[in-house]
Every structure is written in C-alpha cells, then in structure tokens.
Amino acid sequence: MVNSIHDRAVLHNGVHMPWIGLGVYKAEEGDEVVQAIKWALDAGYRSIDTASFYDNETGVGKAIRESTVPREELFITTKVWNTDQGYDQTLAAFDASLQRLGLDYVDLYLIHWPVPGKYKETWKAIEKIYQDGKAKAIGVSNFKQHHLEDLIADAEIKPMVNQVEYHPRLTQDELLSYCKEQGIQLEAWRPLLKGEILEEPVLVKMAEKHNKSVAQIILRWDIQNGVVTIPKSVTKHRIEENVEIFDFELSAEEMSQISSLNQNKRNGVDPDDSEFYKQFE
C-alpha cells in the first residue's frame, strides 16, 4: 500500500517513478510555471510532467536549476508532439526539448499521441534515445490497447508507461488490466476532470467522512488502483492539498463506489479520432 509521498512505482526496467506529480499543461511559460514547480517541490513533489507542446519546458528547466533538490531526486517527463513524429524528427525534437530544459537527460520520454502511420518510427527513435542513456524510461501517451498491441509487435523495448485520460467518469478498466498484464504503468492525466466531478454527491459524502476534499478522494482512488497521477495546478493551496493523500485509505466498497461512476466519458480527444490527426499529416 502506498502510504508516503516518498513511495514510488517500479517500472518494468527497474526505474522508480513517484506516484504523484505536478502536471504543467497550460501553466504559462515564465514566472507562473516556475512558481508552481517551486511550490510543488516545497510540498514534497519530485515528479514534474511537461511536453514540448506545452511551450513551458524552458520555465520547467529554470525551476529545476533554481531548486535546492538534487537532480537525481527529481523525475522529469516530457513528450514528442505530433508534428515532430517520425524517426529523424523525433531525435531532433528530443534534443530541442533537452536544450530548453537545460538537462543532460530526462527521466521519462513519451509519444504524446498515436499519430497513425508515424508512431512506430517515432518509437524506434525513442528506443535509441533510451539506449543512448538520454531517457531513463520511455513510454507512450493516449494509446488504447490496440495501439499498444500494434506497437509492441515490432518493438525492441516495451513501453514502460502509458499516460491517458483517467478519472471516475472514464475508468478504462480493460486498458488498466491490459497494462498491468503487460507490465506497463498506467498514468492519469486530467484526473480531476477539470473540476467537473467535484460536486458529485457520492464523492462529497466520502470526502466528509474522511475529512478530505473531493479532489483528494479521487487522487487516492487513482493510487489505490495502481495508477500514477499528475494533477495540474498553479495554485499554491491546491498544489499542497493534492499531495496530502497518504494519511488515509479508501475501503474496497468505497473504491467500487467511485468506479461505478464511470460513464466512459472523455473530456479530451478520443485517441481514435481521425479528424484530430488530419492536421498533422
């Protein structure tokens, strides 16, 4: 059982990944993202999740350099964007991300979306990045089971992480089971559904019982399901609150109640949406 912010998930290559991290999607480059990361590090976070698409890697790097936390204690994730996919393009995009971050390596490098006809070549480049020691772990984001099966069929190295939309309205039970069977760590983005689920009566009642916020109930549910989570915030008290989830435990009945809220409802793009990918052809 995960009972401390210092506990870590162990990826299939032996790398230790924090169970909770700070997502910085839409955190503005410059002071906003730097300050959010500083608050997070002060609160005990050690994992920061960014992407080239977020346009704030430079700020993430600045916050890391200005922190007193040793680099080896941090877990930094970034991702290759859709327009940079393909073998040579991915290698160049990775080098550009490293330069913006001001780092010698990242802890996790992900394919941001499974762009049809491109993600296999992209993965070959990411395997090389891993073999060259420039990424401690590699993985994918927004991959459904059929994408993973297709990728693994020709891969030298199996993805270590799959970061997907995951929350009580989209529990992705089959994908979670498949990833566990394959030794792929599932990671949740948008775990709080942009706040849309925070007034759900079942969750409100549970929060009152545990003297916690609804957000804390949801994040605890993630972790007890074996899902790494990266809530996004640039607000100090929310950043601090989101990590205060290691001093209580949800019962099996409560876990089931939360899972029963599933509606297979996506807030973001469906990874099979062909219209979404046409802009990157």
UniProtKB/TrEMBL annotation:
The keyword Oxidoreductase applies. Coiled coil: none annotated. Keywords: NADP, Oxidoreductase. Residues 261-281 are annotated as: Disordered. Residues 23-262 form the NADP-dependent oxidoreductase domain. Pfam families: Aldo_ket_red (PF00248). InterPro entries: AKR, AKR5G, Aldo/ket_reductase_CS, NAD(P)_OxRdtase_dom_sf, NADP_OxRdtase_dom. SUPFAM superfamilies: NAD(P)-linked oxidoreductase. Belongs to the aldo/keto reductase family. This is Diketogulonate reductase-like aldo/keto reductase.
